[in-house]
From TrEMBL:
The keyword rRNA-binding does not apply. Keywords: DNA-binding, Transcription, Transcription regulation. InterPro entries: ArsR-like_HTH, HTH_HxlR, WH-like_DNA-bd_sf, WH_DNA-bd_sf. This is Helix-turn-helix transcriptional regulator.
């Protein structure tokens, strides 16, 4: 017996990261860029103040961290809370969406950290064969 073929049009997903104008592409860039992924990963451990976060994400400049946090806050991944104290206190933490993103990102980080011997061996082989040309 044949399965009936549907004549209904299949709706494309509302967002497609591979489409140039899709807003999900910008968010993906914010999360997976060097400073975004490290910032989200650092915040997975819990809320941080700006300077704590800057120390944790070794090598990030104050300007880049600020821009990264603003982009992640705009995307709903990070929540910024300013406390009316003297001096002012600002804490950053992941939103529920940010915690989900961080969990998936942590899996990738653990995979890469656990595979570094293989990566370093591959790099050495590549460099050896490319260097002999």
């Amino acid at each position: 017996m044949e399965t009936p073929v549907s004549t209904e049009a299949v709706e494309p997903p509302p967002f497609d990261v591979f489409a140039r104008a899709c807003p999900s592409r910008e968010t993906l860039e914010h999360v997976t860029g060097r400073w975004g992924s490290l910032t989200v990963g650092a915040l997975r451990e819990g809320p941080c103040r700006f300077n704590e976060l800057r120390r944790r994400v070794d090598g990030v400049s104050e300007k880049m961290l600020s821009q990264t946090l603003q982009a992640l806050e705009r995307d709903g991944i990070v929540h910024r809370e300013a406390q009316p104290t003297n001096p002012p206190r600002v804490d950053y933490e992941l939103t529920p969406l940010g915690r989900e993103v961080a969990g998936r990102l942590a899996s990738l980080i653990h995979l890469l950290e656990g595979s570094m011997e293989q990566v370093l061996t591959a790099r050495q082989a590549y460099d050896t064969t490319r260097g002999s040309r």
